[in-house]
Each structure stands twice: as C-alpha cells, then as structure tokens.
Amino acid sequence: MTERAAKVKDVPLALVKGGRGEREAEETHELDEPVAASPAMRRVFELARKVADSTIPVLILGETGTGKEVVARFLHAKSPRRGRPFIAVNCAALPDALADSELFGHVRGAFTGADREHRGVFEQADGGTLLLDEIGDLPLPIQAKLLRTLDDGVVRRVGADRPTRVDARHVCATNRDLAADVTTGRFRADLFHRIRGVTIGVPPLRERPEDVEPLARRFLADASRERSRPPRLTAETIGWLRRQPWPGNVRELRQAVHRAVTVGGDVLDLPDFALDAEPIGPALLPALDEYLPGKTWAEVERDVLVAALRRHGSARDAASALGLSRSTVFRKIAAYGLRAGSADE
Ligand SMILES: Nc1ncnc2c1ncn2[C@@H]1O[C@H](COP(=O)(O)OP(=O)(O)OP(=O)(O)O)[C@@H](O)[C@H]1O
Ligand SMILES: [Mg+2]
Q1: CATH number corresponding to 3-203
Q2: Alpha helix (H) ranges present in 126-279?
Q3: Which class in CATH covers the domain with range 284-335?
Q4: Quick one: residue 249, left, alpha or beta (phi over 0 = left, psi -120 to 50 = alpha)?
Q5: Which atom of ligand 1 lies nearest, measured to the CA of 202?
Q6: Ligand 1 pocket: which of 17, 24, 58, 69 to mutate (most atoms within 8 A of CB)
Q7: What is the pLDDT of residues 10-19, one digit of tens each?
Q8: In the CATH hierarchy, which fold is given to the domain comprising 206-276?
Q9: Of 54, 103, 265, 342, whose CB neighbour count within 10 A is largest?
C-alpha cells in the first residue's frame, strides 16, 4: 500500500463536512429556512420539497457558492430521513489514494497502518442522506465502484470479502458541465445517467437580484449578533449590491457583508462595500485623457456599451452591470447598430 493510503485513518473526519472541521469555517443555516425571494429560487426549493419524500437520485447543478449544499440540506430536512445523519463529502478534496476507503470504508489490516476498521461515508450516512459534492472530480476507477454501490445498495469496504448493505439516500452536486465531461471521457456516461433522476439547477445570484437584499439582511444579522442592533443598509447600497455580478455568488455576498460589518459603522454605505473595487485612480486618468479627445458623448457611450456586452456576454447582464434597465440597453443596442445578444458588432 502507498504512503498516502497508510495515513487514511488520520484524515477522514477533516474531509467530511458535517464531521468536525469545516463546520466553523462556513456557517450554514440549518435552523433558518433558506432565503428564496426570487421566483427562480422558490421553484428550486419547491422541487426539492417535492422530491424529498422519495429516494429518486437528485443532481444539483450550479456555479460555485450558489447554495447547492443549502438545497441538499433542505431536501434532507424535509425528507422522512431528517432525524438521521446528513453527511456531505467533498469529492474534489479526496486524494485518489484515499477516495476508496473514504467513501466505502476499510477493514482492519486492509493495508499498512489500517489498524482500526473505518466506516466509509455511505455507512456513516446510513438511514440518512449523503451529499456527494463535486462529484465531477471523482477519479474514474472510483466512479465505477460508486456506480455498483448505487445500483446494488451495498458497499464493499477495502479489504473486505463481503459487501455491507447500506441505505443512504444520495444527492450529487457539481459546478462542472458533466455532459461535456462525459463527452471527453472524464466522467462515466453510465454513472451520469444513474445520478440524474431529477436535476435541480441553482441559478447564479446575478440572475436573481430579488434575493440579494434578503440574503444581505440575513448575513447582516448573522455578522452583527454581538451588537444590540444590526447596522442599516442605505437604499443606494442595496441598489449597488443588486447590480454586482457576484462571480462567487451567495458565498461572496456573505463575505462582502461580513467585511462591511467589520469596517463599517451603524449605517453601511457604498464605501464600506466597495473596498476592493478598483479605484478610478491616477493610473486610469491619463488613459482616459488620451481616449476622450475627439470623441462625442454618443461615441463614448457606444464604447462603454460594447465593452460591457463583451465582458458580460448578454444584454441582460450588461444592463445590470451598468445599472440600466434592460429596455434601455436594448434601445441603445438598436440605436448604435450593435447586434443584440452578441458582444461583437
Ligand atoms: N438561499 C440561501 N439562503 C441562505 N444562505 C444561503 C443560501 N444560498 C447560499 N447560502 C449561503 O451561502 C454559502 C454558500 O452556499 P453553499 O455552500 O450551499 O454553496 P455551494 O453551491 O455548495 O458552493 P460550492 O460550489 O463552493 O460547493 C453558505 O454560507 C450558505 O449558507
Ligand atoms: Mg458545495
């Protein structure tokens, strides 16, 4: 056995979210209902509620930080399994040498250093729900073994000569394009079809601005628990928060609120949030100086619009980044003779 495998007994709990570790790093709101003000998120949670009673495989797709784990926990909390464990395992954090033993367990003496038996996450989640997070990152040989477990409802611990029956409901999540991974051979087609009984897509935060304010208020309350009352948000700040692209989605918003609470006073204003934003400082001024002479306002506006369309890809996202309504952006696209929906002219 390899060196890495030999260390297996020391590692598991830290890798399994919901064991020790990780819990403190990222607070999840197990007691609070998740925020879902937008129609899109209402539909997500409605669907999760509908599938909660059955054991149909659920695949949750979405960009990083959109709340995939929140959806999985919600599903578990609404299911008949709610009194049993919810275990989340991050497949991307499993070194190849550990993945087998971590998922399926090992028997005593299975390899050097395996001086105790170890129950894998499937057994730990027995009777409950197992979230296989970042499923797209699982090594191919483990994908094959996983498929057998999902099909037969049994696990085979490393070194065991008999399988063990398990009853863990599995939910998979990923921010990867699994269909594309199937095409390139990174992900097994049979496993892909096996795990997507029902697919729940969690939209990025920039596509559901209605959620921004209630999420910000939730995080504000969380981040200022020690204070007698949470700081206030100005209307201008809320408007600005709604227009941000949030590439890190809800997690990034949470961080931003946390930081603003730390540096801000009783009223949180734009500068409390815009700390990291690139300042229009001296470096940019000469460039503007060279750029502007000879340009009419309409030409400058057109350039800004083209740049925003290039950067954000769609008229809708460009509109939200520029703080304009979609109809204004469409009108300008037409007026300047740009092709809608494309960054190029
Ligand atoms: N609807 C929501 N209501 C309340 N909090 C939320 C909601 N969605 C996400 N969060 C919070 O945002 C953070 C990120 O959520 P989560 O871990 O579920 O995202 P994820 O999609 O699993 O991210 P990753 O792709 O990085 O695994 C967590 O702190 C979570 O509590
Ligand atoms: Mg996650």
Answers
A1: 3.40.50.300
A2: 140-152, 178-184, 189-195, 212-223, 235-243, 249-263, 270-273
A3: mainly alpha
A4: left
A5: 21
A6: 69
A7: 333 334 444 3
A8: Helicase, Ruva Protein; domain 3 (1.10.8)
A9: 103
